[in-house]
Structure formats: C-alpha cells, structure tokens
Amino acid sequence: MTVSFDFSGQTVLVTGASRGIGFGVAQAFADAGARVCVLAEDAGIEKAARTLSATTGGNVRALRCDISDPDAVHRALDGFGRLDVLINNAGVELPTPVEEGHSAIDDAFRRIIDVNVMGTWWVTRAALPQMGEGGRILITSSIWGRTAVPGFAAYVASKHALIGIARTLSRELGPRGIRVNAVCPGWVRTEASLRSLAVMAQERGISEDAMGDALAANQSLDGLMDPTDVAGLYLYLASEAAANLTGQAIQVDRGEVMA
C-alpha cells in the first residue's frame, strides 16, 4: 500500500538539511509538493538545495546560518514570509565522557547544548511571527531523549530537553492552533550516528559490524534505518491526518524503545 501526502501551496523550513535525516525529510516534503527551504551552517547546504531541486522538480531554497547565533538566525529568517511547517532538525552529536580530563570535552558539551537546545529555541522564536493559525512545528529528538547511554551526556541531555520544549510549546501555542511534536529516531545511517557507533564499538573492543549487530538485536525489526525510512513520520505529523496530535514524542526506531 502506498500512502501519499499533499503539501502543495505550503512552505516548509527544514534545519540541518545538508545531509542525513534533514535532507531526507526535506526531500519527502518537496516530493509532496511543498515549497521547501533548507538551512544549515555548512557550505554543503547550497549543493543540497540544488540536488533537491533537480531530483524533486521543486525550487528548493537554501539558507546558511549557525543557529546557535541568535542574531544570525534573525538575519536569515527576516522577511522569510509565510511559514506553514517548521522542522527543527539541526543538531550536533559528539561523545562527552564525564571522566575525560581534556578541556575539549567541555567545549563539545557547550557546543551541543548551544546548537541542539538553544539553536532550536532561536529558530522557533524567529519563525513564529511568520507562522499563522494552524502551523506545525516538529522537533527532532532521539530515542536517547527517552533513555540514555554512557559517554554521551550532552547529547542525551539535549534530546531530553527538546522533548520538554515540544511539550511546553504545545501548551503555549495550542490557542493559536499550532501543533508541536517531537520525533525520536532510532539508529539511522547518518554520518553522525555511524560516528557514534564507531565510538561505542571502540569502547567495547569490538568491530563496528559487531556493534551494529548488537544494536539491531535490541530492536523488534532487524537492521538499521536510512533517512528515508523516518521521513514518513514527519509527513504524517505535519498533515491533517495528525490534526489531533500535539505535545507528543513519537519513536520511529524499529521497536527498540517501547515507552
């Protein structure tokens, strides 16, 4: 069975969309007829927009901005125009082991919070004036926002925080008809997650393949996902089919976390 969504005439902004989940989500919305704008800090965002325009037939715009800088965010979104769907997806995933004495760990911790938590806050604050009645905000959390793993305190904390932000904003923005939900992906083949997998494998003294097998063994369905495997949940939550869903944190993880 094929399920299709139509976002024709709607404008969607996806942060962290130069690659990985953000790119896959942006492609899904463009394929569904939306006017898509992609945002990221790195120079690859312009190439991503060109690729998405070519593959989907849409006119995908690119914005380059470090979302941890509130002034830069406001400059990027000033005069953006009507916004129907905001996908707060940008994030940093790095290990921050608490017993590691190097100051770089503290720098990484601060950077993760600045981008994942504060960046989501700044983008949402700047975007809200351009979002009308019935807008939708989706925030990419993680299954690690529902559980925890050793060595990734900053990332885990940030993803827990994003669920709290989504729930609180759903209460605040409900009177405007704006729905806010969090998506909690499991193991998706992205540059960041595979880097984390490699770190975990090294700590356990096993191969990356063995680590991948161990992670998959904790799932009800075997295998890791690709970005396209999680994009459907974003489409659903942004659609009228989910008109009564807000303040939720929903896992798409092949059955790894059941809560």
From TrEMBL:
Top-rank taxon, per record: Bacteria
Biological processes, Gene Ontology terms: monocarboxylic acid metabolic process
Signal peptide: none
Location of the Ketoreductase domain: 10-187
Name of this chain's protein: 3-hydroxybutyrate dehydrogenase
UniProt cross-references to PROSITE patterns, sorted A to Z: ADH_SHORT
Higher taxonomy: Bacteria, Pseudomonadati, Pseudomonadota, Gammaproteobacteria, Oceanospirillales
Database matches in InterPro entries: KR_dom, NAD(P)-bd_dom_sf, Sc_DH/Rdtase_CS, SDR, SDR_fam
Gene3D superfamilies in the record: NAD(P)-binding Rossmann-like Domain
